[in-house]
Amino acid sequence: MGILQDAKVPCEEQKSRLHVTYLYHSGFCVETEESCYIFDYYKGTLPALGRQKRVYVFASHFHQDHYNPEVFKLLKGQGIPAENIEAVLSADIRRGKYPDGIQVLRAGANKTYTLSDGTVVETLRSTDSGVAWLLTAKAGTIYHAGDLNDWRWEEETEEYNAHMTMRFRKEIDRIAGRRIDAAFMPLDVRQERDYAEGMLYFLEKVDVRCVYPMHYWGHPEVIGQFLREYPQYGNIVKDTEEYARQ
After folding, report:
1. What is the 8-class DSSP label of residue 99?
2. What domain range includes position 158?
3. 91-122 tens-digit pLDDT
4. Model pLDDT for residues 192-213, shown as the tens digit of each residue
5. What is the pLDDT of residues 150-161, one digit of tens each?
6. 109 with 88: CB under 8 angstroms?
7. What CATH number has the domain bearing residue 214?
8. Maximal CA-CA distance, the chain
9. DSSP 95
């Protein structure tokens, strides 16, 4: 898995000074000059990180495809001292799953926190479990949805799907009009005809430079499907897999 090179990203990401590495599934690493933010590590190879940087490990909820404590061993294996690592974990993650010797911030929904590097973290309530993250850092603004999505399913009732859409839109409306430099959003092929509903509403409501689809369960072709069906977003929605191979 490679770093998404700034000079090759045609969405002005270079102006935000955010260096993005796709890890796997919903996992991403975002580096700035001062800090590193790791989101929803499940599997994958971490980039080599500077030992002097602050490293913040975010987990949006307890599902095993969004939180794997192995990430802390990988960081220590790079020689990063424990005092430079902080965990920002959704409140639904059991304390027995917390890393030893690492400072933990336990995050609830619809709250605001300030990290030791000055980054402001706002949380949204997920439509599944846990939270979504909105970070305002010196280098730019980052959004990671976790499992906050318009989870409409063909096998569910109209009432269920309408309620899901209402809950999702209520949360996204809280950040409507905000300027976001890099966003990570589900694009889940399992939703069949409704696969793009959450992504489309997010793009309509938020002023976002770059969106990297995630949570596509090994079916990256859903990104190409989205870009063919909605070419107007071709300069914003990136083919996550394509950039990861660079």
Report:
1. P
2. 3-244
3. 999 999 999 999 999 999 999 999 999 999 99
4. 999 999 999 999 999 999 999 9
5. 999 999 999 999
6. no
7. 3.60.15.10
8. 52
9. G
What mean pLDDT comes out for the span 39-47?
A: 96
CA 174 to chain centre: 17
For residues 106 and 42, what is the distance between their CA atoms, to the nearest angstrom?
19
Q: Which residues pair with 54 in a beta bridge?
A: 35
**Average pLDDT score over the chain:** 92
Q: Is the pTM of this model over 0.90?
A: yes
CA angle in degrees (0–180, nearest 5) for 160-229-220? 80
- Report d(CA 76, CA 142) in Å as an integer: 25
Q: Which of 141, 146, 139, 212 is nearest to 181 (CA)?
A: 141
- The count of structural domains within the chain is 1
- Return d(Cα 226, Cα 246) in angstroms, integer: 21
- 158: Cα within 13 Å, side-chain hemisphere: 0
- Inter-residue contact 28 to 133 (CB < 8 Å): no
